[in-house]
Design goal:
five-stranded parallel beta sheet, alpha/beta
Length: 248
């Protein structure tokens, strides 16, 4: 009886998103950037960017897949060249879509995306693999299973075995010691399967990248969803998953 009374007292605490307003984001949180390429074309090399995400000259752009959202560029680049907004819709289905500006628009339709939404639109089970991450992305992924976020209401959940999964969600740069584990997890997941890269490390290597702009995961398997950030806010991850499934 005490448990039931306490439940009545606490009421419903799961957020209303996406049918209601998104949760408030911290004032210091840096979201989807806006880039003025014209201001960057004549700017000196962006040596202040720790991952080489910001490029000046003719190829002026900001690569969200390599960006760790440290905010240095907003201060060091020409005034107004880079501005971070509170936008959280940052997940993309193709690597080239992570370039701002100039990247392709968010893929609205493709045969692969239609297949994913048909098979997994109402139920998506994922095996999360921490492939050498710092635990920040892992924490922000796992919090989606709590009562406040409750991604289970959309049919999305993490499972213990890849044999019970519809895909893998990988965090971390895929270190040498974890490469075989990721390969085995992928192989054990039944086909057709979804591959999701969460965080700058999984997308491009992040701070551990070799400067090629091509991360371990993408070089191993085709990736269906890229979620940038270091780490991505839980709202960024959830919005990206829901858009992958056609739920937003």
């Amino acid at each position: 009886m005490g448990i039931l009374l306490e439940r009545i007292r606490q009421k419903h605490r799961t957020m209303a998103y996406p049918n209601g307003p998104a949760p408030d984001l911290p004032d210091r949180w840096l979201g989807l950037p806006e880039v003025d390429a014209d201001l960057l074309r004549d700017a000196p090399p962006a040596d202040y960017c720790p991952t080489g995400a910001l490029r000046t000259g003719e190829a002026a752009s900001l690569d969200l897949g390599r960006c760790i959202f440290c905010g240095r560029c907003a201060d060091a680049a020409p005034a107004g060249a880079v501005r971070f907004t509170k936008g959280y819709a940052m997940g993309r289905f193709r690597r080239e879509e992570l370039l701002v500006p100039g990247g392709a628009s968010i893929t609205a339709d493709s045969e692969r995306l239609r297949m994913i939404r048909t098979l997994f639109g109402k139920s998506l089970k994922l095996r999360q693999v921490s492939a050498g991450g710092c635990n920040a992305r892992e924490a922000d992924s796992n919090v989606l299973g709590t009562l406040a976020w409750d991604m289970g209401r959309f049919g999305i959940s993490f499972v213990a075995s890849p044999r019970h999964a519809d895909g893998i969600l990988v965090t971390g740069p895929v270190t040498d010691n974890m490469k075989l584990a990721v390969e085995k997890t992928y192989a054990a997941t039944p086909s057709p399967k979804v591959v999701i890269a969460v965080g700058a490390c999984a997308v491009s290597g992040g701070l551990y990248g070799d400067g090629s702009g091509r991360g371990w995961l993408e070089s191993m398997f085709p990736v269906d969803l890229y979620v940038p950030g270091c780490p991505p806010h839980p709202l960024v991850i959830l919005e990206s998953l829901l858009r992958l499934l056609g739920r937003v």
